[in-house]
Amino acid sequence: MKKTLITLALESSCDETSVAVLKNGREVLSNIVSSQIDLHKRFGGVVPEVASRKHVENISYVIDEALEKANLNFEDIDIIGVTYGPGLVGALLVGLSTAKALAYSLKKPIIGVNHIEGHIYANFIEYKDLEPPFICLIVSGGHTHLVYMKDYGIYEVLGKTRDDAAGEAFDKVARAIGMGYPGGPLIDELSKIGDKEAIDFPRTYLENGSLDFSFSGLKSSVLNYLNNSKMKGIPISKEDVAASFQQAVIDVLVDKTMTAAQKYEVDTIVIAGGVAANSGLREEFRRRANKNQFKLMVPPLSLCTDNAAMIGCAAYYDYINGYTADMYLNAIPNLKLGEKYVKVANVK
Fold first, then answer.
1. Where substrate is bound, by residue (predicted)?
2. Fewer Cβ atoms within 10 Å of its own Cβ: the N or the C terminal residue of the chain?
């Protein structure tokens, strides 16, 4: 195997068109992200058809920009990584079609990457000495997973959301109190001037010993509080609602992650995903990690949200471990963590 492997990675699972170039998996030569947030704000959320069309418009330009910034061309690429799930099926297909066309024309291997897995690998980019095993909390708009990573590509899912993902709950509560989209950053900012103890919103821990999550009850509690206050003519402090809601989410996320780390006797905790950018969550994790003597690793904000660098890192480790896909690789919108694409054999 070559001493230096250059990966071209594509990510288009939702509303970011991203392309990255990496050297040996962990060195990012370029990581270009074209965001559609401003486009979807007017709708109060991501519109799948609009997202897909925008990916088609953007992806060629983003590829060119990523190669130019890396000071490389197509002939320098060794492998191509691409997200094939989970995500919006139309959006995924844009990245997949492009990646397969490049792999076919350049005669390069293609590696399909699980988007959730990619979020974990964002930490390998930031922390060059990070190695499994560790406990990882992946928390984003569409996913909330608590994972024991035994080795590269080998996971045990310890818990996941049974209803709303944490980021989804943030968006819904933000909408309920009259804020815009995306709700997570707006609530985080508003919480800084609110009282997190003003309203006693519930913390849902489910049955004894469970590491699963549930945020629909908390969301309903916030909605009930708002409706009851309006009916009774009680003034509503958006700042206090935001701070109290956010703290309820944080308490559950941190408590369950700490429980998992102690149970599996690891010394390292990793957090990943868009909600990992939340300043309150990061602060509470640092406090609890120090108290319990865990090493905490959190990616920079640029690697928390969807990006192709994390996909390229995951693709590199899959490749060196002998995993590649083929031209039959297809989008799987409900792909589960740990599932791998199996090549289609003897197809005529």
1. 138-142, 171, 184, 188, 278
2. C
